[in-house]
Amino acid sequence: MLLVGACRQPDQKQPVVVEERLPVPTSTIVRPALVEDREVREFPDLASALAAIVPPGTRLLGIGELHARTDRPTVISALARFTNEALPALAPRLSHLVLETWTVDQRCGEVATRATETIQRQVRRPASTQSELGLLVERSRDHGVKVHAMQVGCDDYRAIAKGDDDAIAAMLDLTTAELGRLGAALPAQTSRERPLVVVYGGAMHNDRSPTPGLEPWSYAAAVEAASDHTFVEVDLIVPELGLADPATASQPWARLLRGNQRVVTVRRAERSYVVLLPESGTKASAGHGKGPRAGVGAAAAPSEPPEPPAPSAPPRR
User: What are the sequence ranges of the domains in the chain?
Assistant: First the structure.
């Protein structure tokens, strides 16, 4: 699903020191670093950035994104860049990929279709979302990675189909529960050669230090033990989408988004990073536009469904 309208804008978290070699206004330097590590680093591409910030022993990686929307600039999405660049680099050690999406259960009848359409309309999802999800699923399987979607029951569809504020809350509750369930179950189902699980969704559900009041909508605490305390949170920010989003544009690192031509990582806290991607029109983003350009979507899953959810809990109703 990757619930665009409801997912938190990334980083209501502690601001960080900016490395001196970057031409950043001093207003972004808010407090001293608490560790010796450099807080901001530049990389030529997303693959090398992830290699630097995700330790080799990581069992669970939570990727969050600002979703593409029809009322925001048309860009090369974070999901397209993840599919084309990050996935091939992660694949040799990746066993399972969890997506914040679902395949419509026809057994639930018309209410399942209505709920899906309601979410797509409310979050202003681009029409190309479905094909972008399908491309990620296809390429993941080509690399031997098992792909998992959320499990949605008929009662869930009925709650979501109402389309009111309670429906949004129900969607957030469902998403958090399902991503947490899969994220906690799958690390035990990996191999020694491929010990990594990736959960890809919106930049709220993976928060290690959630904004006060949003704690119920983060799965991070639920998966910490299952990941052997190696869970890493990474939010991917497309500059054009970040600058168009008021909450993101107000962050202390937001000025780094303007004119950005490289991949920039900002360390917010232990095992918590924001990754600023190059602007879509820059040379650094060339070659990442193959395939769909919109952000991944909530309910529009590919026609060939992902793997069934891991059997770690009774089916939701």
Answer: 37-285
